[in-house]
Amino acid sequence: ATPVVVAIDGPSGTGKSSTSKAVAARMGMRYLDTGAQYRAITWWMLHAGVDIDDPRAVAAAAGKPSIVSGTDPLAPSITIDGTDVAAPIRGERVTGAVSAVSAVPEVRTLITDLQRSIAAEADGGIVVEGRDIGTTVLPDADVKIFLTASPEVRAARRSAEVSGRAGAPAAGGADVAATQAALLRRDAADSGRKTSPLAKAGDATEVDTSELTLEQVIECVVTLIEERG
Ligand code: C5P
């Protein structure tokens, strides 16, 4: 059988990463976190002193670093020019800058090419999560899923994720409100950009995860993969 390609898109805080990793692990497939790639190039630009508010400067620097994504769903990894950036790309600085960098067409072209070659080499099939996988990166994916959730649920999940990290304080009400505002700003930027915005593909199945547990979302996606075609 030909390897199955699964595209999982949606805004932040919908459970894309947890769901995609678990589904890939369960089905013996590879896993690619495309958001981590945009975060890595953003980290590199900040580190290199590129003015990320200048799209021409970002475009000129885009081809310089080399990104390597490890696709084991049980131990995903990301390096840029040989530096392991798995931890720093989750920080506030990168999160606040990534939408500007990922909106630059030259950045998208380079990273899209990289994503396509990784998917083409995944013999056992692959789950690819992002914002434009079903629409642009892999329009011929065998299964396309678009995850959604209410803004309140998304903010609560993101706050729990951030405060669950080592050394982080527990999130209070004000923190959740601030997280929700930042998350909605990022989604608005990602949905409003000209090149390959966050969007549901016409042939994607939408799953509203607001009232579902992670296990229920995983079950739902596994069923959609098993029933494909
Ligand atoms: O999924 P994650 O929150 O890590 O994505 C970080 C950012 O990377 C998004 O807010 C978006 O700007 C960008 N991104 C993108 N296209 C993708 C995946 C992520 O533009 N396929």
From TrEMBL:
Classification via CDD domains: CMPK
Record-level Gene Ontology MF annotations: ATP binding; CMP kinase activity; dCMP kinase activity
SUPFAM superfamilies the record matches: P-loop containing nucleoside triphosphate hydrolases (SSF52540)
Reactions catalysed: CMP + ATP = CDP + ADP; dCMP + ATP = dCDP + ADP
Binding positions (ATP): G10, P11, S12, G13, T14, G15, K16, S17, S18
Chain intervals for the UniProt region annotation (Disordered): 187-206
Domain Cytidylate kinase, chain residue ranges per copy: 6-226
Subcellular location per the Swiss-Prot or TrEMBL entry: Cytoplasm
GO cellular component, one term: cytoplasm
Record Pfam families: Cytidylate_kin
Keyword annotations of the record: ATP-binding, Cytoplasm, Kinase, Nucleotide-binding, Transferase
Highest taxon in the source lineage: Bacteria
Major localization listed first in the record, in broad terms: cytoplasm
GO BP: any one term: pyrimidine nucleotide metabolic process
Enzyme Commission no: 2.7.4.25
Similarity annotation: Belongs to the cytidylate kinase family. Type 1 subfamily.
HAMAP family per UniProt: Cytidyl_kinase_type1 (MF_00238)
NCBIfam families referenced in this protein's UniProt entry, alphabetically: cmk
This protein's name: Cytidylate kinase
Species of provenance: Streptomyces sedi
